[in-house]
Design brief:
mainly beta
């Protein structure tokens, strides 16, 4: 006989009165498991022989088959969200079961930080997204799984590059130099947001298929348990775990095909000849017709293959997986390879009082990047009458007049390899019936190697160069905490008390060699070929940073009569980043909930759930450069730092202040109020949430100019008094589910966020946060922090058109008679959207299911730095290509410049069909594989199928990093990596 795992076991025997034994016969039990309310089949329901590891799971149609011993065998049927049921087999060969839902989604477990709670008992603004609701398609990091799924959470892809950074904010940004990225916590380990090598996303090491759920803590009453790091919200990532019961083996394979979604409408060769001549230019016509965008892009193939296995017995459960993703970028020469392995196990000892949890994740990512700015810039402006390839050799053509973008692809290379291991051991011991102690030991270690190569070339002339950068990040966590739970009469109490210590060690080294000869050997493969290794041009560098965080935290949850809920949280954090006078900060929060639907006067009403929530709390933000509280000195030999001790020109080494000490620096403080209403109607078929929030960030950390002009250092760090950044708004979520008796299931839902951001009492007219780039735009700034305006406000000259002389005309704001000076700049809109919205829906019938997800934003602006630098008449007349907008206005002079102004400020609103997924669950029984296979799923997904927008760049969802002095920029598009349109085909088989 074979168990569900495939192991052979002997037939069962029993003893008879005369001492002999007789063999107990095995019987095969089949049946079907359905939802008791809807009669819909439950696929993936576990069917376990009680007291053993033998079991199976139901297929897509709810059917199962299991061999069990005849007699007193008992089957246990279990499914998430449903009440488990036990059935004695006896002499039955067919057992059909109807499972009842367990109080709908109100009993859904939500991770809240150092514990969990059911949805009905929560008093804070928390949203949980399960793996079944994740976004589909080609996904590199957890943020992409969430895009559009949570009200108040704005996820923006900085570019379409494989593994590119994702910008994510929870209820708006609230800092200047501290950033606005939320805290990510992976299975109880708070991660460091710093990147380890390269320009990619630091979360790319996670395999999205290993993630079970993502919980977003939005308001201070929920995030205060993380104290000094909770001001920007907290995102808790929970990976898949094994479950007691039948062993499962899942194989999944996905292949994706991607192409550029929205190429820019540049002039064709014929249009180029006509337009250049029309404005008085001379066409350098080489008689070809080349689409340079097509030449540098490709049809990219992505492969994603995963193997996962899980199972367990009564006291042991385990989960393991191996994944490989190979994503080609739509730009030639770009791509991301990721190799991941994961294993976790949970073992119970001492009559289940001691539980040991072990987690291990190991990954390697390899990111290849061409010179993206140079490649795209060259392709957008290249003369389309030049041929891309030499007709004689078939190789990319080389020209004196300009650099063929295909040659740029060959000569510039950027490769980064990152190895990362995240491991934790978490034993917990049940001291008494109500009191549990837990220890959490975690290590997150990442190392990186990045090689930037410029290959030597005679035409175009270029010396070879190699720069190598090495990095290592280590994050060590030690936590001890006690949890006390007690229920009596109508009361329920849960208390948490703990201590946490976390150390971050970040190191890096770099070196370079110049003047490699023209050779088929790449510099990275033989650095010894370099001919220049002088300290003046190749001085090696390095750094080492160590930060520590010690915390004491506590939380109290109290319930009365399952109606009145109260939560209080406090955390005291001590950080090595802050001054001797302010090492520790205390962050409290309070929240309350009233389950109105449990009151007698509403029990006969239409509400299946109605809960009012109120919350207030304070959190901190410590994401600032290390050691800024300490003085910094610089030693060098120059006239700026010393003077000759004799009449010669020999300067001895001199030491000067670079930064003044400030022991009073402390955390930025975010104070947040939240009022929420959760409701359910029609027995939970219609559910929704409404929240009003107000988040005020104060004690803003900023690098400022000393008031006293006679200072040894030009700047110092301080908390700016009275300056505040306020985010306030309303979030709405609504979901409706319908299930017919025939098995048709229909879901539709969505969310919307109205949010306003405002900067007040800044000591400066504008704190610059975004710079322009490109020919003629050096040192030009675009946006920043302006009093009375949102973060990311575009502070620009107002463009009024072309005057009678054919040159720019700007608004004269200060009335000095000269328009277009710095004093004439105005607040022209912000890069932050004031509205975010999402619509999602799905329909399923029998084995088929179809799901779609739309998302968008409005109320925001984008600055088209690409158009500003490349698309205007003065460039077109010189034979540089562009779109129709390059022609400019009818009377515009061919000598008219294109300075930074509102001329290139555009509406950034969009509405996108993010993804559509069609799936079919094929019954293994229908093809005779049900003996070995429990489920077969086929799927097809379309990603980024269309976007509705007025923006005429590659894509409106963009945020090129144009940081100024460490202050993050917003809403600037400069030669961004184009987004792709993708189609993904998948096969998933479960044994």
């Amino acid at each position: 006989m074979l168990t569900a795992q495939g192991a052979t076991v002997p037939p069962a025997r029993t003893t008879v009165p005369n001492g002999a034994t007789r063999q107990v016969a095995d019987i095969t039990v089949t049946g079907r498991v359905v939802d008791a309310a809807t009669n819909e089949p439950l696929a993936g329901c576990s069917v376990l022989l009680k007291g053993t590891q033998r079991g199976t799971t139901t297929d897509a149609n709810g059917n199962y088959k299991l061999v069990v011993p005849e007699g007193s065998a008992v089957l246990v049927f279990g499914f998430i969200g449903f009440v488990s049921q036990e059935v004695t087999v006896g002499n039955q060969s067919t057992i059909n079961v109807s499972l009842k839902a367990s109080a709908s989604e109100l009993n859904q477990v939500v991770v809240i930080g150092y514990g969990s709670a059911t949805k009905k008992d929560m008093t804070g603004a928390i949203k949980s997204v399960k793996s079944t609701d994740f976004n589909r398609g080609i996904v590199n990091s957890p943020e992409q799984l969430l895009q559009g799924r949570v009200a108040g959470v704005n996820v923006t892809s900085a570019s379409g590059e494989p593994g590119g950074r994702q910008n994510i904010t929870v209820r708006g940004p609230g800092g200047v130099r501290t950033g606005s990225t939320p805290l990510f916590v992976l299975d109880g380990i708070p991660l460091d947001n710093s990147s380890t090598g390269g320009a990619g996303n630091p979360l790319n090491f996670l395999n999205p298929q290993d993630i079970e759920s993502i919980d977003v803590l939005k308001d201070a009453s929920a995030t205060a348990i993380y104290g000094a790091r909770g001001a920007n919200g907290v995102i808790l990532i929970t990976t898949r775990k094994g479950k007691a019961g039948a062993a499962n083996l899942t194989l999944s394979s996905n292949v994706g095909i991607s192409n550029i979604a929205r190429p820019l409408p540049l002039f064709t060769a014929d249009e180029f000849r006509k337009e250049v001549a029309a404005i008085g230019g001379v066409v350098d016509d080489q008689r070809a017709s080349t689409d340079w965008q097509r030449e540098i892009t490709r049809t990219a193939i992505t492969q994603d293959h995963n193997i996962a296995f899980s199972g367990g017995a009564e006291r042991l459960s385990y989960y393991g997986s191996v994944g490989v993703q190979n994503q080609e970028g739509i730009l030639k020469g770009s791509g991301l390879k990721r190799y991941t392995g994961r294993f976790n196990a949970s073992q119970k000892f001492m009559e289940d009082r001691l539980v040991l949890d072990v987690n291990l994740t190991a990954s390697q990512t390899v990111n290849d990047r061409p010179s993206i700015d140079g490649l795209i810039g060259a392709a957008l402006s290249a003369n389309p009458t030049y041929p891309a390839y030499d007709p004689t050799t078939g190789q990319p053509a080389r020209y004196q007049a300009f650099t063929n973008p295909l040659i740029t692809l060959q000569l510039q290379k950027d490769a980064t390899t990152i190895n990362r291991v995240v491991a934790s051991v978490s034993p917990s011991y049940k001291i008494t019936k109500n009191l549990t102690y837990k220890l959490n030991l975690g290590v997150d270690n990442a190392s990186s190697t990045r090689d930037l190569q410029s290959l030597a070339s005679a035409l175009p002339q270029q010396d070879g160069r190699l720069e190598s950068i090495y990095g290592n990040n280590r994050n060590v966590l030690i936590e001890n905490y006690f949890t006390y739970n007690r229920n009596w009469a109508k009361h329920s109490l849960s208390a948490l008390l703990g201590h946490s210590y976390q150390q971050f060690d970040i190191r890096g080294r770099n070196w370079s060699i110049n003047r490699f000869p023209v050779s088929p050997i790449e510099p990275g493969n033989n650095p010894g070929l370099g001919q220049e290794l002088a300290l003046a041009t190749n001085r090696p560098g390095g750094f080492a940073i160590q930060n520590e965080l010690q915390s004491f935290f506590g939380r109290l949850n109290y319930q009365f009569n399952d109606r009145y809920l109260f939560t209080a949280t406090v955390r005291a954090d001590g950080s090595s980043k802050f001054g001797a006078n302010n090492k520790y900060g205390v962050f409290p929060s309070f929240s309350a909930g009233w389950r109105i639907s449990e009151e007698e006067f509403l029990k006969s009403g239409p509400f299946s759930d109605l809960k009012l929530r109120l919350g207030w709390g304070q959190t901190g933000n410590q994401e600032i450069p290390s050691k800024i509280t300490q003085a910094l000195f610089t030693s060098s030999t120059s006239a700026a730092t010393s003077y000759p001790l004799d009449n010669s020109t020999n300067f001895p080494a001199g030491t000067t202040y670079t930064r003044l000490a400030n022991p009073d620096i402390q955390w930025e403080l975010s104070t947040q109020t939240d009022v929420g209403l959760d409701f359910g109607l029609f027995n939970g078929a219609l559910t929704g949430t409404l929240d009003y929030f107000r988040k005020v960030s104060g004690k803003i950390l900023l690098e400022v100019i000393p008031a006293d002009p006679i200072q040894p250092a030009s700047t110092y760090w301080t908390n700016v008094p009275d300056m505040t950044i306020t985010n306030q708004g309303v979030e709405m979520e609504l979901n409706y589910r319908y299930v017919s008796q025939s098995g048709l299931r229909f879901d539709i839902g969505g969310n919307m966020t109205f949010i306003k951001n405002r900067v007040d009492n800044s000591p400066y007219t504008v704190i610059t946060s975004g710079s322009a780039s490109g020919p003629g735009l050096t040192s030009a700034t675009v946006n920043g922090y302006v009093n009375g305006q949102p973060i990311g406000t575009f502070y620009l000259r107002e463009y009024l058109g072309i005057d009678e002389k054919g040159v720019n005309r700007f608004r004269d704001v200060d009335g000095d008679g000269i328009g277009g000076t710095d004093k004439d700049r105005i607040a022209a809109g912000s890069a932050l959207p004031t509205r975010q919205f999402n619509i999602n829906g799905s329909v399923a019938y029998k084995g088929f299911d179809l799901a779609a997800n739309f998302n968008g934003v409005s109320g925001n602006k984008l600055y088209d730095n690409t158009a500003n630098a490349f698309f205007y008449r003065a460039r077109l007349v010189k034979g540089l290509n562009g779109p129709a907008s390059s022609v400019g206005e009818a009377n515009e002079s061919i000598n008219n410049a294109a300075p930074v102004s509102t001329r290139f400020l555009k509406d950034g609103a969009f509405f996108r069909l993010n993804n559509v997924a069609l799936g079919y669950n094929l019954s293994p029984r229908s093809i005779g594989l049900d003996r070995w296979v429990s489920n077969i799923r086929l799927s097809a997904t379309g990603q980024n199928l269309f976007v509705i927008t007025k923006y005429d760049g590659f894509d409106p969802e963009v945020n090129t990093d144009r940081t100024v002095n460490g202050i993050v920029s917003y809403g600037i598009d400069y030669l961004s990596y184009p987004r792709a349109r993708s189609f993904v085909f998948g096969l998933n088989v479960t044994f």
